[in-house]
Amino acid sequence: MTISMTQHSHQTAPTQFVDAAGIRFAYRRFGKSGGVPLVLNMHFTGTMDHWDPLVTDGLAATREVILFNNAGISSTSGKVPASVEEMAANAAAFIKALGLATVDVLGFSLGGLVAQELTLAEPKLVRRLILLGTGPRSGEGMVSLTPEAQKIFGAHYDEPDHLWLKVFFTPSEVSQAAGRAYLKRFRARADNRDPEVSDQVAPAQLEALAKWGAPRENPFEYLKAIAQPALVVNGDSDVIIYSVNSCILQQHLPNAQLILYPDANHGSQYQYPERFVQHASLFLSEADARGSARR
Amino acid sequence: MTISMTQHSHQTAPTQFVDAAGIRFAYRRFGKSGGVPLVLNMHFTGTMDHWDPLVTDGLAATREVILFNNAGISSTSGKVPASVEEMAANAAAFIKALGLATVDVLGFSLGGLVAQELTLAEPKLVRRLILLGTGPRSGEGMVSLTPEAQKIFGAHYDEPDHLWLKVFFTPSEVSQAAGRAYLKRFRARADNRDPEVSDQVAPAQLEALAKWGAPRENPFEYLKAIAQPALVVNGDSDVIIYSVNSCILQQHLPNAQLILYPDANHGSQYQYPERFVQHASLFLSEADARGSARR
């Protein structure tokens, strides 16, 4: 089946399937084809539907965007593995199954850990890297959920979506208003939404997060091996993965820019979707030979 | 005398003069007129000629750019005052003498201190603020020149311009090559260059820097009063005004974005001129009502 990519958007892109590594991966693909596609890696318990259409369609204006559910998530078959390395191996299998030899990779939160491991394991597959609201191995407060995250994820919400107002946005009035706008946007896709994730997802992802966050010697040394140009973006007030972890990523990656947005928590790219799309698109469109530092 | 602004560039803009506060200010004005002009505030011992034409002409593609020498500097008459507050008062007098009611302000290093004080003293005059390679009152390592800065400014250079290779760029090969390209660019203007600054400039500026950097109680509190949207930019390896000071500015300004560039020292905007021009132009062109956080 051939699908004309430019016809589709976040709201209309059909869920497609591809088999790899014994898993049937669900994915959606849309945007301007012909360049290096951008593969998005989702956060804890999220599905393809949790991406903000303002962000995905914004990025898709200048490049092809590929959303997918990793193994065991929602419409994708298989089991969620209990390590980030295995999640990354599954992501690599998915990308290769699409016949792609080079991609740009964006990872948000847990997806940012997967993006790092994917880049380490498959350096030739990854051209450029965007790390959103994420952190390094053994990052500050990453050995378990932060106290703030435990409280937020442990609370009861009359409207389940309101969880995300706490996870992604600060308590300020402006940020909460941006959050409510985001909730509307991410619920806007009416047809063929992803099923919610099963009860097996969170425990396995938490186990993987705990292994990643565990203390170890010279924890940030591995980042030196990621030579790809990277863009690290976060809110200045991230209580889910503390913002300082974005600074650590920037300091230890050989060629990374850092952008922090004001009055913003874990989902800064949903609070400033136009601004983020512009920064990300600039970064992804930069000529590789210019202005890229190598130590 | 009417000068057609769009005819001129960094290289050809004539040095003009305007009188205010008993000072004859030298300035150059070029770029796309009709919007809010951008006024640039220069670093320690620098003149209008030290700006990078790739940066100034890049910014001038979308807005009017105004370079000037503050009191006592090079082609401007008067005495360099020994406090940042007085420098800011002179900058305000200059801007008002041009008949401007609203400007955007960019300050680099010492110029970034002046930009902060100017914004505090004249909040209605300043619409948006770009702070480059600079820091807050009582910032880390700002009570005097840093040890690195003392060494760099105290050393002898066979070619005097080579000072700037040390001040603005890291020791890496890539950064030094970018530095040599910058030196060529800032020497490219052949006609009507500014005279070098007199021997009185450095001591007065150092005194002003020391007062600004002196320890005090709650040193960063004053930043809460700067409500203007701000963009803070620095290299990740600034040894002249430590990069952490850019993080402090972002944390304490109510509405600031932070961008750090990799493998870059004090002059990161000269190492990545195209990238910086894009980030700065995006920031200055953002609609005020959208995506701007207020606490």
Structural class of chain A: alpha/beta
From the alpha carbons, calculate the radius of gyration of chain A and give it in angstroms.
18 Å
Q: Spans of chain A with pLDDT under 50 lasting ≥5 residues?
A: 289-295
Please tally the β strands of chain A and state the result.
8
Strand coverage percent of chain A = 15-25%
Averaged pLDDT of chain A: 95
Q: Assembly state here?
A: homodimer
Structure overview:
- 2 copies of one chain form a homodimer.
- Chain A is an alpha/beta fold and 295 residues long.
- Chain A has 10 helices and 8 strands.
- An 8-stranded mixed β-sheet of chain A has the order 1-2-4-3-5-6-7-8, with helices on both faces.
- In chain A, strand 5 (103-108), helix 3 (110-121) and strand 6 form a beta-alpha-beta unit.
- The longest helix of chain A has 14 residues, at 84-97.
- Chain A is globular.
- Chain A starts with 15 loop residues before the first strand and ends in a 10-residue tail after the last helix.
- The model of chain A is unreliable at 289-295 (pLDDT under 50).
- At the A-B interface, helix 8, strand 8 and helix 10 of A face helix 8, strand 8 and helix 10 of B.
- Strand 8 (256-261) of chain A pairs antiparallel with strand 8 (256-261) of chain B, so a sheet runs across the interface.
